[in-house]
Design goal:
Blueprint lengths: L2 H4 L9 H8 L1 H11 L6 H10 L6 E5 H4 L8 E2 L9 E2 L3 E4 L5 E3 L10 E5 L11 E4 L3 E3 L4 E4 L14 E2 L10 E3 L7 H9 L4 E5 L3 E6 L4 E2 L9 E2 L3 H10 L3 E7 L4 H9 L9 E5 L10 H7 L3 E5 L3 E2 L5 E4 L5 E5 L3 H19 L8 E5 L10 E9 L2 E4 L9 H4 L3 E5 L9 E6 L21
Parallel strand pairs: 5-6, 13-16, 13-17, 14-15, 17-21, 19-23, 22-24
Antiparallel strand pairs: 1-12, 2-11, 3-10, 4-6, 4-7, 5-9, 8-9, 18-20, 20-21, 22-26, 23-24, 23-25, 25-26
Helix pairs in contact: 3-4, 4-10, 8-9
C-alpha cells in the first residue's frame, strides 16, 4: 500500500506525538519533497525514508521465537504467582509447635501433625509453617521433633512458606508492551502460563546483487571486482532490525532486472528489496525502468550528498519498498545508512534515530549544495575523518566508530559536527569517543 494509506496503522504503544507527526506535518513535507525538482538533502532523505512507511502489524509467535523481539501486547498475570502457597524448603509441613506425628503427604493437618514436603510443593491445608529438613529429626515411632541445634523461630507461623500471589496477583502487568524481550522475560511469561506472545514483526529484506563483472571468490582478474556486498548485507540487515530474506545475483540486462524485481516476492514476500548498482542514468542502468514497468513509483531519486548521491527509494503497488544502492561499496553503505536504517526502523515501529554531535578534530572543507558523509574515529572525544574513504573503498569504514554528516559549508576543527553510529558500533556519546583504531588521520 502507499504511504498515505498506511499512516493510521501505528500500534497502540507507539507514541501519540510520533503518530500525529506522521499524519500531519511530515506527510506534507513528504509531498513537498516529492514535488521538488532538486534532490532532497541528506536530512530530508532520512526523514522521508522514515515517514513514507507505517509499522508492520504484530505477529503471534512462540516464546522461543519472541526473544529479541518487541512486545506489542501486555503480558498479564491471569492468576496469582505463585497460584498456590508452596514450600520454600525441603522438610515437613507442620501444624503447631511440635512435636508432631507424621501423616501421609498432602493430607490436611491438625494440631500436632506434620507431613513430608519438597521445595515448591503445595502447602497442605492446616499447615502453619515449614520445618527445614536440617532442623528436624524423626524417631523410630514416626514422631517429628526439633533438633537441639535448630535455629530460633523455625516453627513460627508462615516460616518458609511462599504465599500465593507473592510475586504477582491476577491482573498484574508482568511485561508491558514496547519491551524488547530478553530470555528472562520469556521465562516470566512461561511461569505465568503463556505459550505465545504478540510481537512487532520485523521487516523481511531481500537483496538483488547486480553486475556481470562481479566475482564471489578468489582474487579478481583485470576487469573484474570482488563482491563486497554479498558477505556483509545480511548481517547489516539484521543489525538494522530486519530479517534477511535471501539474495539473488543477476547480470546487467533489463530483462534480468525486471524478472528479479517482479519475482523477489517468490516464497515469503519481502517488505523491502535492496538492489546494488544500476541506479545511474546511463543506458545500462535499469532500476528506474524496471520499477516503472512494475507499476511502481519513485519516492526519492537521488540525494544531495556524497558519496551515495545516486541512491533511489521506490514503492511497488504491492506495498514493497525498493532501495536502490549505488555500485561503489562505501557509497552504497552510506546510502543504506541514510535510507535503509530509517525505513527499517519505521517498519519495525522503532524511533527515528536522532543525531548526536561531536567536536571535529580536523578542518573539513565545504561541498557546496551537498552533505558529505565521512567515516570517522574518536580520539580524546574529537571526531577525526578516517583515511581510505573513497566511494569504492571499505578500509576506512572497517575501522570507523561512526560517520560524520559534514554540512555543505564545511566544518572547522573544534566546531560541532553531526555524527551517527554504524550498525555495528556503540551509540555515539562522550563515554565512547576514544580512539581504538589505527585507521584515522589528523
Amino acid at each position: 500500500m502507499l504511504a498515505q494509506e498506511v499512516a493510521a496503522s501505528t500500534p497502540l504503544f507507539h507514541e501519540q506525538e510520533l503518530t500525529d507527526s506522521r499524519e500531519s506535518r511530515h506527510s506534507r513535507e513528504l509531498t513537498a519533497s516529492l514535488q521538488r525538482k532538486h534532490a532532497p538533502t541528506w536530512a530530508e532523505a532520512r526523514q522521508l525514508a522514515y515517514h513514507c512507511a507505517a509499522p508492520l502489524p504484530s505477529l503471534k509467535v512462540t516464546l522461543a521465537e519472541a526473544i529479541g523481539c518487541t512486545l506489542t501486547t501486555d503480558v498479564i498475570a491471569h492468576q496469582d504467582l505463585p497460584h498456590y502457597a508452596s514450600s520454600a524448603m525441603d522438610g515437613w509441613a507442620i501444624n503447631g509447635g511440635g512435636p508432631w506425628t507424621i501423616t501421609e503427604s498432602g493430607r490436611p493437618l491438625s494440631a500436632g501433625e506434620a507431613n513430608v514436603i519438597a521445595t515448591g510443593g503445595r502447602v497442605p491445608p492446616g499447615a502453619t509453617a515449614i520445618l527445614r529438613k536440617e532442623s528436624g529429626q524423626v524417631s523410630a515411632d514416626v514422631q517429628l521433633s526439633l533438633r537441639h541445634d535448630a535455629k530460633l523461630g523455625e516453627t513460627l507461623p508462615g516460616r518458609h512458606i511462599r504465599p500465593a500471589g507473592e510475586e504477582a496477583t491476577a491482573g498484574d502487568v508482568l511485561i508491558p508492551a514496547g519491551t524488547l524481550l530478553n530470555p528472562a522475560h520469556i521465562a516470566l511469561a512461561a511461569v505465568a502460563g503463556h505459550d505465545h506472545l504478540h510481537v512487532q514483526r520485523k521487516p523481511r529484506v531481500a537483496v538483488v546483487l547486480t553486475g556481470s563483472e562481479v566475482v564471489t571468490s578468489g582474487e579478481p582478474a583485470p576487469g573484474q571486482v570482488r563482491d563486497a556486498f554479498g558477505p556483509q548485507l545480511d548481517a547489516v540487515i539484521s543489525q538494522l532490525g530486519g530479517v534477511p530474506g535471501g539474495q539473488l545475483r543477476i547480470g546487467d540486462s533489463y530483462d534480468e532486472w525486471l524478472t528479479a524485481l517482479a519475482g523477489a516476492h517468490q516464497g515469503e514476500r519481502p517488505d523491502v528489496t535492496i538492489t546494488t548498482g544500476g541506479t545511474g542514468k546511463s543506458g545500462t542502468d535499469h532500476f528506474r525502468d524496471a520499477v516503472a514497468a512494475l507499476g511502481g513509483r519513485l519516492l526519492l531519486d537521488g540525494i544531495a550528498m556524497r558519496p551515495g548521491h545516486p541512491a533511489v527509494l521506490a514503492e511497488l503497488p504491492d506495498g514493497r519498498f525498493i532501495i536502490g544502492l549505488p555500485g561503489n561499496p562505501l557509497a552504497a553503505m552510506l546510502a543504506l545508512m541514510t535510507l535503509g536504517e530509517p525505513l527499517l526502523a519505521a517498519l519495525g515501529n522503532r524511533r527515528f534515530q536522532g543525531i548526536s554531535h561531536a567536536l571535529s578534530g580536523a578542518d573539513l572543507e565545504p561541498t557546496p549544495g551537498k552533505t558529505r558523509l565521512v567515516p570517522c574515529a574518536f580520539v580524546h572525544e574529537l571526531a577525526f575523518p578516517a583515511s581510505h574513504i573513497g566511494p569504492g573503498m571499505m578500509r576506512g569504514l572497517a575501522w570507523a566508530d561512526g560517520y560524520m554528516a559534514v554540512p555543505p559549508e564545511g566544518v572547522s576543527a573544534g566546531d560541532p559536527v553531526p555524527v551517527l553510529p554504524l550498525p555495528w558500533t556503540a551509540p555515539i556519546s562522550s563515554a565512547n569517543q576514544r580512539g581504538r583504531h589505527s585507521g584515522w588521520h589528523a
